[in-house]
Amino acid sequence: MKVKELATAAGVNPDTVRFYTREGLLQPTRNPDNNYQQYDAEDLRRLRFARKARQLGFSLPEIRQILARADDHHSPCPMVRDVFQQRLVVVEREIAELQQLRKRMISALAAWQEMPDGTPDGHTICRLIEHWDDPSAESCCEEPKHE
Amino acid sequence: MKVKELATAAGVNPDTVRFYTREGLLQPTRNPDNNYQQYDAEDLRRLRFARKARQLGFSLPEIRQILARADDHHSPCPMVRDVFQQRLVVVEREIAELQQLRKRMISALAAWQEMPDGTPDGHTICRLIEHWDDPSAESCCEEPKHE
DNA sequence: TTTGACCTGTGAGTTGGTCACAGGTTTTAC
DNA sequence: GTAAAACCTGTGACCAACTCACAGGTCAAA
Fold this sequence. Notes:
CATH topology of the largest domain in chain A: Multidrug-efflux Transporter Regulator, Chain: A, Domain 2
Order of helices and strands of chain A: HHEEHHHH
CATH class of the largest domain in chain A: Mainly Alpha
Largest sheet of chain A: 2 strands, antiparallel
Oligomer: homodimer
């Protein structure tokens, strides 16, 4: 298979295939006649796996590691499960943060839905943002640097 | 105020102050003696505004626009409200997507919590990812390009 | 045979910062 | 008085995960 064929089969951009190849996630052979990359069914499986893992929140280095271990006939699965569980925590935190944000946005919108557009005091909204005290900022600001 | 003083007052990294200055969000004057940037209380207000707007999901170009309009004594607020409402839609979509993701992750974890680590069939997890059919993929894959 | 669609590698752009570097200035300490 | 530390300056690289652009080579169909 050539780049575009693989890309089409996996439903991704051909540039993504090239990118993953550059990144070492795919290791195609070469057609010596024309120097084209040659992908096989195994590459398609790897690519599909990579895409699904991406959707589940794995990073490319993680995916590369998983694939490399699988190539070595090690079972990558305990490691996968670890990363997976860590990801779940992150995802749940992200959900909570976004829900906080949503609540704040809705209350801000409500607060300023009451006044028409051309209100002489049109700057109210900006003041609303300006003086809006972030309830998620525990005691102070986030620490500027953390190791 | 010098860079670090402003940064400290706003609780941000000094490099962020320099970055925002480069980006035109802050317009300090110069101390002709030493060529240092000089920020005033107004810059602190702008910076605080910018940080809060960032937390609410505004992009830097949007913030720059809002500040520029405010400088021109136009009320930026109707525009702000528009952007704000659009952001709310995006945030809600992101929440829904993350919740979908979370559900899938939890069911995947549940499916493989049943088997111990050293299972001979340790590749199950990877197959689980591999053969996991994305329920959020409506009929096909996401469109590769959209204007 | 020519046109168009594909292939190649490399390099830049995206976002919102953060960090590194090299050199100038100011403050603090002895 | 002077030396070191802490600050300032601008510029440019780096992060993730692609995406796009470019210039030149290859190949299939009309």
